[in-house]
Amino acid sequence: MWREIWFLVTRTLLTTFRKRRTLMLYFGLPIAGILASVLLYSSQGPTELRVGVVNEDAGEQIAADTVSFVKGLDHVTIVNVTPDELKDQLAASKLDSGLIIDSGFSESVLSGSPDHIAIESVKGAQVTAYMKSMLYGYIDNVTSMGKIAGGDAAKFKALYDQYRSADFKLTSESVNDTATTKDMSYQSIGFLLMFMLSSAVGLSELILKNRENRTYFRVLSSPINARTYVLANIVMNLIVMIVQIIVALLFMQVVFHLDPGIPMGEMLGLLALFALVSVSLSLVIVAFSKSSAMAGALQNLIVPPTCMLSGCFFPISIMPAEVRKISDFLPQNWVLQSINKLQSGESFGSIWFNLVMLFAFAVVFFLIATYKFGRNNDTRNFV
Amino acid sequence: MNVLDIRGLTKKFGDFVAVDNMSLTVREGEIFGFLGANGAGKSTTINVVSSLLRPSSGEIRILDKDIMKQSRFAKMNLGIVPQDLAIYEDMTAYENVSFFAGLYGLRGIKLKERTIEALDFVGLGDKAKSFPKNFSGGMKRRLNIACAIAHKPKLIIMDEPTVGIDPQSRNYILTSVRKLNESGCTIIYTSHYMEEVEEICSRIAIVDHGKIIAEGTKEQLKSTITDVKDIRIELKSVQGGVVEKLRSIPGVRNVSQEDHVIRIHSDAAVDNLNRMLKQLIDAGMEIRSVEEQEPNLETVFLTLTGRNLRD
């Protein structure tokens, strides 16, 4: 039987994949998916904050130092502007925020009640929060010195000079921020899951196409029986899925340099299990379809919506709690959950329940398809 | 030796009996004509013989082996040429034949030789690398045959192999059928073209309502029709309504018209030729010739089933 299966598998693979269009469809699209998530997340890296500064407390040491402090912050560029220019440039989005130091700011800090300083932005907290937290820390320090000096200018100067010239021993150690690459690879896998499901349905659909062109019945009139024929389709489908996974993971790591934060072997194992689920689900779709057109329609009805609900296209955390409950019944969600756990540092063994769930999905789908196939007995189109 | 032996075959679809206790024997070396109007049960019979359908009851033996018990042996010795083309449009002619021959366990050089042999046999040797989508209807039909014969089956079932093709391809196929038969293949041949069946079949069975209603050589079948005469009248032009008027004449069983020729199927015992001619003359039609023909297979079929083969 395996000799016959292998014969059917090799012949079908050769015929199906000699077309460039099919190669693009099965292997090019998952790569395009990875590219899409790379582009999607590339805008989330560190950005430069453009701050317009209006210093109307000019000539005062504290005001000048405050401006210098802001200038020294990472990823901040300052531009000295007038109040009118600030308004115009904020409105035109040429500046992200504005720091307005009014006359009397330095004095207010010295007196222990900082005032006459404001931060403006039309983009809201997302651009002002960082500068506020850093700047307020600095002002608080200087204010504390003002309070300690108790209005004594000489004492404040001594404290302030000491503060400015403080000799800290700072040891820094750089760590890579892997959050973005993990997000990118997570989303790339999301796209891959959808393409795997679509590919599986496309390949299982060959059974229906062969029924439509009647070659299926010619095959069944040979010593090949229906079980061998369907088994060959499953094997062929799994081979394509595995190659699809390997190609996608290779491109992810080698070409796009995306480290998913999970050992490749574990990722391959997890996705191979999902390949089994994809094939079993595709067989259910085919078993319930009377034509390839109907299978295509069912695929459109099932694959994209379930992928969306499972978080294949965007993080599931942004969806309402009720929708998240639905995703528990979707195999894609169990894969993505597993990836999330593995990325958080959990071991492969600790996701055993997710793996069992995926296997259970595959078994249930296979059983449904087998039951339905057993009840199909349509030979009317052959002779 | 019997190549095919069907005993008491019944196939039901729910309450509908498609094949009703049919028994049939096809001997080695025969070209066996299997005739029946649409829905008579011949396709169901072929589907059961080719193991695509399970019989409700009865026994089928191919080369003396029960097809249910020794399915693989039966299938290895059977080739099916379906009425509707069953070929892959995205495979070349060579790949098509090679694929289907490979299903019978042929591999390597033997597979290659048999594939080339089958393509040469149907006259497509020079088109081996071409795709069927570029073929004419006749070429596709020939490829359909090549796919069924490359594994050299003992029994070939050909269902309407010449339907809808040009006369040249039709002649080629009929010659191929004879050659296959001469090379030792037993052939079951179904067709709506009576002249084809008369020309090539050594024995014929007529099936109606799932039963064999007549079986024998064409001469034997024709000899059973003694109570019917077949009259052919050629007219200069045919007026509307004349067919209905002729049908109302006592003894007339069936009237058909093809261009300027009217064929009347009537009881031999009733002397009604003069009334027929009078009817035509009264209607103002000019008669060119009148001929009483020997009963042919079509007459036999019509007499036995009350239907034309194309109904």
Automatic annotation (TrEMBL), chain A:
This is Transport permease protein. It comes from Paenibacillus mangrovi. One of its GO terms (cellular component) is ATP-binding cassette (ABC) transporter complex. The chain crosses the membrane at residues 23-41, 189-208, 229-256, 268-289, 301-321, 351-371. It is found in: Cell membrane. PROSITE patterns: ABC_TM2. Keywords: Cell membrane, Membrane, Transmembrane, Transmembrane helix, Transport. GO terms for molecular function: ABC-type transporter activity. Belongs to the ABC-2 integral membrane protein family. It comes from the Bacteria. Residues 152-376 form the ABC transmembrane type-2 domain. Pfam families: ABC2_membrane_3. Its main location: membrane. It is a multi-pass membrane protein.
TrEMBL record, chain B:
GO terms for molecular function: ATP binding; ATP hydrolysis activity. Coiled coil: none annotated. It holds the Pfam family DrrA1-3_C. Keywords: ATP-binding, Nucleotide-binding, Transport. It comes from the Bacteria. Residues 4-234 form the ABC transporter domain. This is ABC transporter ATP-binding protein.
